[in-house]
TrEMBL record:
CDD domains: GATase1_ES1. It catalyses: glyoxal + H2O = glycolate + H(+). GO terms for molecular function: lyase activity. This is Glyoxalase. InterPro entries: Class_I_gatase-like (IPR029062), ElbB (IPR026041). Gene3D superfamilies: 3.40.50.880. It comes from Halomonas ventosae. Belongs to the peptidase C56 family. Keywords: Lyase. Displays glyoxalase activity, catalyzing the conversion of glyoxal to glycolate.
Length: 220
């Protein structure tokens, strides 16, 4: 049977949800490697809705994170509280500001952030079972709260986010856009993607490396 990977989304769109290119590139690479996957997202209201053309918050509009994430998954998606680590061999979290607004309150609380309970509960099984965990772009900021302090991660070279990771007890490693950071002891893989990328091809190189390494770690 094909190895199975859970992919956790945080909406649809870089400013208020999951980053679309990062998600698509991760799913593409999983498919190219012959790996099965299933998308999940929390069934909660979005923090807010952003007009991506103007970059402005749309006052009074409400959207659901699971419903919006279904756009990226072409409707093939399940509520996050149904994710059971026993059914999967690894998990990947794309970035986007939904990570900081819907999966956590990092956008408003910074280093004092909290991660939503459903995500913490979903990832606990993977971490305890030493199943590989891939975090793309901004999702790496969750690691000190979501998993354990002291796990090596990267968001590239961003001093603000790197400083917040360190302030939470995390361990940040600088990294180029086309590379990855691997914490072999904890089986956590991260890549900067659009924390640094200026072109989709730059993001693709790092994301493909991340998925490739996740594939390798599932065999160890």
């Amino acid at each position: 049977m094909s190895k199975q990977v859970a992919v956790i989304l945080s909406g649809c769109g870089v400013q208020d949800g999951a980053e679309i290119y990062e998600t698509t590139l991760a799913l593409l690479r999983l498919d190219q490697l012959g790996l099965g996957y299933r998308c999940f997202a929390p069934d909660i209201e979005q923090y807010h809705v952003v007009d991506h053309r103007r970059g402005e918050v749309v006052e009074g509009e409400r959207r659901n994170v699971l419903t919006e994430s279904a756009r990226l998954a072409r409707g093939e998606i399940s509520p996050l509280d149904e994710l059971d680590a026993d059914d999967f061999d690894a998990v990947i979290l794309p970035g986007g500001f939904g990570v900081a607004k819907n999966l956590s309150d990092f956008a408003s609380a910074g280093a004092g952030m909290q991660v939503i309970d459903t995500l913490t509960e979903a990832l606990a099984g993977f971490h305890e079972a030493r199943k590989p965990i891939g975090l793309i772009c901004l999702s790496a900021v969750l690691v000190p709260r979501l998993l354990d302090p002291g796990i090596a991660v990267t968001v590239g070279h961003d001093p603000g986010v790197a400083g917040a990771i360190s302030a939470m007890g995390g361990l940040h490693r600088s990294c180029g856009v086309e590379d990855i950071v691997v914490d072999f002891e904890n089986r956590v893989v991260t890549t900067p993607a659009y924390m640094l990328a200026t072109r989709i091809s730059e993001a693709a190189t790092g994301i493909f490396k991340l998925v490739d390494r996740i594939d390798e770690l599932m065999d160890l």
